[in-house]
Write a structure and sequence with these properties.
8 strands, 16 helices, alpha+beta, hpI Integrase, Chain A, DNA polymerase, domain 1, 3-stranded antiparallel beta sheet, Double Stranded RNA Binding Domain, about 425 residues
Length: about 425
């Protein structure tokens, strides 16, 4: 219980320095000089610790705010701070309530936690968000208050990441921060988004396709790969054009190998809708071999086989990442600048080379918008060129095997 005492009116550093503590609890000496501030004083404990305080009343409620400890704070500085706080009180504010609100305000790290639990966990790309948060967001902003983050903070972070990690990574982090702070508004952590208006780096879309020789080298590297589970995941990517998350998260109940159909649930697809797609005979054979080996291993271990086509080595879940293994395969196969997602582009290029239409390619890839598939339109250049060359040969008599009537086309007069 704090007690008060009447001390010398001369409230200065010497007075505070020589002030002794009570036998128990603490006591407060109030400023009583000519320049006294109402409610301003110094509290001293039994152990001799001293700190400046301000007592005030708001809406009939008595409040006590700690300004700072002595000797870090001197009397003159503490008195000026007390004057400033007293002006706020006289204006109807509650400085202690503001301080408590600041203390309890959410940090960026807490925003990250809530984002991962309530938003990223429902996203197909949630793992990538978690990686960016742990690599870039928490180390730079985690301890900061959400309400204190400014546009300059995030814009500067984007520019720095552009230099350190490249323009694409910087843009992905900027997009993540934009979504996080949009949710922060919804969750009433702040009223605006400091990520709005960040100028993104220009990005040139890149579509990399494996050539026939590159496919041969990759096939040889897959055969020699130490982890045939990883190799099979890559093979299924090549044979289906599916996205990495769809393959790694695939479960056996999604496949009907007799009918040759893969039904991808909405939770696994980018478009958040079920995608029913036929699979080729080589893909069915690959999956049948994987299933047979999994069943044999389970029988040897006297356990049930995993529900996942590509189970994790430990735990009950699926494989979640094969980037490291893919980098090793690329080194062995001498593939330069090839991403896992480029296997999907390669699948599309093979379909186009076979003369299949854009709508068919889009249906196999799970596109819902024609514009998404239109990026592959240039792949039709070669089959179209071959077709027009043949038509030209027929009409000029150069093709003797077609059986078509030759239409002589002479030079213009």
């Amino acid at each position: 219980m704090a007690t008060t005492g009447k001390f010398d009116d001369w409230f200065d550093d010497k007075f505070v320095r020589e002030l002794t503590g009570p036998e128990k609890g603490n006591r407060i000496a109030y400023d009583r000089g000519n320049d006294a501030v109402k409610g301003f004083g110094v509290r001293v404990t039994k152990a001799g610790a001293k700190s400046f305080i301000l007592n005030y009343t708001v809406a009939g409620r008595e409040r006590r705010l700690t300004i700072g400890g002595y000797p870090t704070w001197k009397v003159a500085a503490a008195r000026e701070q007390a004057k400033s706080l007293r002006r706020k009180v006289d204006s109807g504010d509650d400085p202690l309530a503001e301080k408590e609100a600041e203390r309890d305000a959410a940090t960026v790290s807490q925003l990250c936690d809530r984002y991962l639990v309530e938003h990223a966990s429902r996203k197909r790309t949630g793992g990538g968000d978690r990686s960016m948060i742990e690599r870039f967001v928490r180390p730079r902003l985690g301890s900061r208050k959400v309400a204190a983050i400014t546009f300059d903070d995030l814009d500067g972070m984007h520019r720095k990441l552009t230099t350190e990690s490249g323009p694409y990574s910087a843009n992905r982090v900027a997009a993540l921060l934009g979504k996080m702070f949009a949710l922060a508004i919804r969750w009433r952590m702040r009223t605006d988004s400091p990520a709005k208006g960040i100028e993104r780096n220009p990005e040139e879309r890149r579509y990399r396709y494996l050539s026939g020789d590159e496919l041969r080298r990759l096939t040889e590297a897959l055969a020699a790969c130490r982890s045939q589970q990883t190799a099979n995941a890559v093979r299924l990517l090549l044979l289906t054009g599916a996205r990495r998350g769809e393959v790694l998260g695939a479960t056996w109940d999604q496949f009907d190998l007799e009918a040759g159909v893969w039904v991808k649930p909405s939770s696994h697809t980018k478009q958040k809708r079920e995608h029913r797609v036929p699979i080729s005979a080589p893909a069915r054979q690959l999956l049948a071999d994987i299933r047979d080996r999994a069943e044999r291993r389970a029988a040897e271990r006297h356990c049930e086989p995993s529900t996942f086509v590509f189970p994790a080595r430990t735990g009950d879940g699926p494989m979640t990442e094969i980037k490291t293994a893919w980098a090793g395969l690329c080194r062995v196969a001498q593939l330069d600048g090839v991403r896992l997602h480029d296997l999907r582009h390669t699948y599309a290029s093979v379909l186009a080379s076979a003369g299949l239409s854009l709508p068919v390619i889009g249906a196999l890839l799970g596109h819902t918008q024609p514009g998404t598939t239109a990026r592959y339109a240039h792949l039709f250049d070669d089959p179209l060129r071959a077709a027009t060359e043949r038509a030209g040969a027929i009409m000029t008599g150069g093709d003797k095997t077609s059986g078509a009537e030759v239409v002589p086309i002479g030079k213009g007069r």
